Amino acid sequence: MDPVDVNILGVQGVYILWVLTAVSMFFFVRRITKIIKILNRARPENRFDNFKERIVNFILYVLGQKKLFGERTIGLPHFLFFWGFVFYAGSFWWNLLRGLIPVLPIPYSDEVGIITFALEIMGVLVLLSIIVAVLRRIFFPPQHLQQSFDAVIILSLITILMVTLLLGQGYKGTIEASVWSPIGSIIASGLSVSENTAVDTFKAFWWIHIISVLFFLGYIPYSKHMHLLASPFNVLFRNNSQPADLTIKSNSEDIGSGASKWTEFTWKDLLNSFSCAECGRCDRACPAQNSGAVLAPRVILHKIKEQMYETGFNKNGNGIHEIFEDKISKEELWQCTTCMSCMQQCPVLNEHLPVIISMRRFLINQGEVEQTVQDVLQKITRYGNSFGQSDRNRPKWTAALEPKIKDARKEEVEYLWLTGDYAAFDSRLQSITQKTAYIFQKSGLDFGILYEAEKNSGNDVRRIGEEGLFEVLRDKNTQQIKKSKFKKIITTDPHTYNTLKNEYKLSDNGDDVSIRHYTEVIDELINEKKITFNNKLNIKATYHDPCYLGRYNGVYEPPRKILKSIGVTLVEMPRNRAKSYCCGAGGGRIWMEDKTPVKERPSESRIREAAALKDVSLMVVACPKDIVMFQDAVKTTGNEGKLEIKDISELVFESMK
Amino acid sequence: MNFIVFLKMVPDVIEELKIADDGKQLDSDWIRMKLNECDENAVEEAIILKEKFGGKVTAVALDAPELDDALFNALAKGADKAVKIIGEWKDVHSPAIAEIFAKYLRDNNLIDNQTLILSGSQAIDDIEGELVYYLGELLNLPAFGVITHVDYDSGQNSVSLVKEFAGGLRGEFSSGLPAVLGIQASENPPRYIPIAKIRAIMKSAAIEEVVIPPDGLPAGTTIEKMFEPETTGKAEMLDGSTDEIIEKLIGIFSDKGII
Questions:
Q1: A368 neighbourhood in chain B, CB within 8 Å
Q2: Which of A382, A389, A466 shows the shortest C-beta gap to B194?
Q3: Could you tell me if A184 and A77 lie in one domain?
Q4: Which end of chain A has fewer beta carbons closer than 10 Å to its terminal beta carbon, N or C?
Q5: Quick check: B194 and A256 CB within 8 A?
Q6: CB contact B24 to A (< 8 Å)
Q7: What does the alpha-carbon distance between residue A360 and residue A352 come to, in Å, rounded to a whole number?
Q8: Same domain, A509 and A635
Q9: Average pLDDT, stretch A459-482?
Q10: Are residues A509 and A597 in the same domain?
């Protein structure tokens, strides 16, 4: 029974199929060509290295749909949509080819038993998934999920595809029963029609099905379901070298000058926008968005796409104005804390941060930066620290220590310790830094510091978008570090840790210099039994994962192991490890002021989360900036006396006493 | 228009300051120099005026440690020319500095009827803001200090100025050109110049060097002796419960004869 063998108003089915296919392909190819042309006009970037890793990513995140399972309700349904799509797409091309070229000596896909079976079972599973998806959209839509008309169209189309397939199978089943057609048989058992009607109805469903698919094909590149074509490439070309890589991988000078319109982004930056499925996971995770700020990572990518559509389909791009004029406000760009939650959550591995930093770079290059940040940048430029103090003050916190800490510029040490600015200069934090030093000294660690020669590491300077200053700082520190003799580096500040580990090149021969966070070192010292605890603490506490330690660098366990060994019972907050919630200090935010009224600062949200835990009156942190941010938030949320913020070093120190 | 901005490097008080053994000057081993803050505003104001009314900005200073950074910074901001007056400029104070600057202007024939000369209205070693008035006197030009607003009227070829006085009073003045202005604050705070831009300027632009022999300079004031700031009474923290603290306070007040 050949479904193409029909005669509509005197025209043979095969000709109609040819015309429909041609129309659909015309729209599809036209749009895709335009999009590829757009990507071609963007700035170049090399994303063709590391072939192996790219394939692994593809298997995990495209074929395995790994990130989708982060949200339980929609994880499995989307997995089924994806595999259903792959399977039905295969079946569709097969049938289309067979239909277009009737002389081909092959059967239709549904004439092969095992394929029929798979088509029917898959069809039912996809229909069930559709029900979940629809219920989710109607009754419990997550915040920021875009309830677009687009989504309604696509869900309806998929429903039509499945229903027509299954009903067609049903009508076919009334004529010829097959063990390979369980669903078809069930439907057929409820139908009583003549053979002619059955054949006609089967053919009618076949045509509705194929026309729907052809419509789908032409429509995809015009809709949010472009993600289904773009995201596999997005995953394939993702950055593998480091989290939210900001390296300028191009020789052309203008990349350093940042982006103010779509043509100034790299092609991979733009591919993000086409890959976005508007699911809103990034917005839900974004501390800026949740605090009532304008910034929403999804919207940033969307606005860039809008500008591409509005101006990119014309031949000349000279008339494209700055994206800040009507799409993305400068204010929202500065609201990003660079916590990387958006990227962590994104199912298609979009890279929002490099896009945001690119625009910040542009603003910095125009000298457009708020006064408080300008002051800090100038302080760092002149004095090498964000506190604007004389660099001679950097080692002041060591004055009270006995024995004196070794000067790593003058003598060889095993561990070179870089504290970062906050731990060294902030009067609230110096005593904690002293306790860390005490722990190192008591456990016989051979370590030294650079005294006044250490400079701000530049992690946050880079994220503000001041690439030039970052380079200066990186070069100065690198020079100094290379002059010193040591085996490993310890850092206090996770921000320092991140840039040293991922963005500095500390050895000439390409070997990695071992960079440790102090929690990793203390954990090692405990394992080697070099620390003795005289006083186990026997308390309950929760632990906050700093963004740049956890999400950025995957250090989750050492702090937890330390807490366990000193007798702390850890009570996890709902948002822990990779889902940890930013304190709001990163990306230079610690130096900015809130201009618009905030609903709830990120730090306040985090404090309320910790305070809501049963029997917990202590939140342990492992980042100097966390102490500053959270101690403030404890006061502003009225949790003074109820929740205490302590650095993990303070607890280790107490239990050593 | 022709904007000439005179700059000066001053000791950075962020760094610890030490008095040299002779008791008359700062120990040069301990000081780092930075651009005088008001001068930074003068540069900014000149650039703002140039952007509004067109013209050329020239930044001029006596040689000093770290001066090049300040001059490149001015060039990156939009100054057209930077000039360094070479020499060992020790112990020169405002009268002598004004003499050198005036000589530079006269020797190079730089003043025309479109010229506005700007400088910071004061500096930590010129709290009175004398430089501007000495310059005005030497060049026989009108001079105004503590200026917070400048506007140019091309029809009249004159500037209208706002000058601040003590106690929050302000005065509006109008002056023909050329004139000498001591800038207290620029229209907008000095802008941020990204490091990349400064580096680019360092590669592409050069600082012009000029020699002016230090002959016959007036001594002006001479420093007899420098002092460290004296610490007067220190704050005392009172410990204890609220009642105890009140008790102690009453004790202190009665000891001092206040109650």
A1: 192
A2: A466
A3: yes
A4: C
A5: no
A6: no
A7: 13
A8: no
A9: 96
A10: no
A597 and A469, same domain (yes or no):
no
Q: Where are the alpha helices (DSSP H) in A176-280?
A: 182-189, 195-219, 227-236, 267-275
Look up the ipTM and state it: 0.88
B34/A469 Cβ within 8 A = no
Pair type for strands B56-62 and B33-35: unpaired
CB-based contact (8 Å) between B18 and chain A?
no
Would you place residue A124 in the very low, low, confident or very high pLDDT band (cuts 50, 70, 90)? Answer: very high
Kindly report the nearest CA distance between residue B229 and chain A, in angstroms. 19
Choosing from A365, A385, A409, the residue where a domain stops is: A365
Question: A464: nearest CA in chain B?
Answer: B194
Q: Of B186, B94, B169, which Cα lies nearest the Cα of B138?
A: B94
Domain contains A1: no
Contact between A466 and B189 using a beta-carbon 8 Å cutoff: no
pTM recorded for the entire structure? 0.92
pLDDT for A253: 61
Average pLDDT over residues A543-554: 97
* Cα A617 from Cα A542, distance rounded (Å): 8
- Give the CATH number of the domain where residue A547 resides: 3.40.50
Nearest by CB to residue B195, choosing from A371, A374, A472, is: A472
CATH number, domain of A144, equals 1.20.950
Please state, in angstroms and rounded to a whole number, the distance separating the CA atoms of residues A283 and A287.
8
Q: Residue A150 — very low, low, confident or very high, per pLDDT cuts 50/70/90?
A: confident
**Contacts across the A-B interface (CB distance below 8 Å):** 41
* Domain residue ranges in chain B: 2-211
- Over 60: is that where the pLDDT of A590 sits? yes
Strand, helix or coil for residue B32: coil
Residue A239, domain member (yes or no): no
Taking the Cβ of residue B34 and every Cβ of chain A, the question of whether any pair is shorter than 8 Å is answered with: yes
Q: What is the pLDDT of residues A151-177, one digit of tens each?
A: 899 889 999 999 999 999 999 888 888
Taking the CA of residue B55 and the nearest CA in chain A, the distance in Å comes to 21
The answer to whether residues A544 and A603 belong to one domain is: yes
Both tokens of B35, joined, read 């651009």
Choice among A397-406, A509-518, B72-81, B137-146 with the minimum mean pLDDT: A509-518
Q: Which of B14, B192, B196 sits opposite A467 (nearest CB)?
A: B196
* Nearest of A421, A428, A563, A420 to residue A491 by alpha carbon: A420
Residues A292 and A375 both lie in one domain: no
pLDDT in tens, B108-130: 999 999 999 999 999 998 999 99
Summarize pLDDT for A289-302 with one digit per residue, the tens: 999 999 999 999 99
With b for 16 or more beta-carbon neighbours within 10 A and e for fewer, the A187-220 pattern comes to bbeeeeeeeeebbebbbbbbbbbbbbbbbbbbbb
Question: Cα separation of A326 and B65, whole Å?
Answer: 46
Do A414 and A328 share a structural domain?
A: no
CA–CA gap between residue A306 and residue B60 (Å, rounded): 49
Whole-angstrom distance, CA of residue A627 vs CA of residue A634: 10
Could you say which residues from 181 to 220 on chain B have a Cβ atom under 8 Å away from some Cβ of chain A?
189, 191-199
The whole-number pLDDT of residue A318 equals 62
Enclosing H/E stretch for A495: helix A494-502
- Tell me the two tokens of residue A83: 């595999």
Range of the domain at A613: 539-656
pLDDT value, residue A316: 58
Across all residues in chain A, what is the average pLDDT? 93
Asked if residue A335 belongs to a domain, the reply is yes
In a domain, A242, yes or no: no
Q: What's the pLDDT tens digit per position in A204-255?
A: 999 999 999 999 999 999 988 899 999 999 999 998 878 888 887 766 666 5
Interface touch B195/A388, C-beta < 8 Å = no
Per-residue confidence (pLDDT) for residue A173, from 0 to 100 = 87
Q: Do A392 and B191 touch (CB under 8 A)?
A: no
CATH class of the domain defined by B2-211: alpha beta
Same domain for A348 and A446, yes or no, is: no
B153-179 pLDDT per residue, tens: 999 999 999 999 999 899 999 999 999
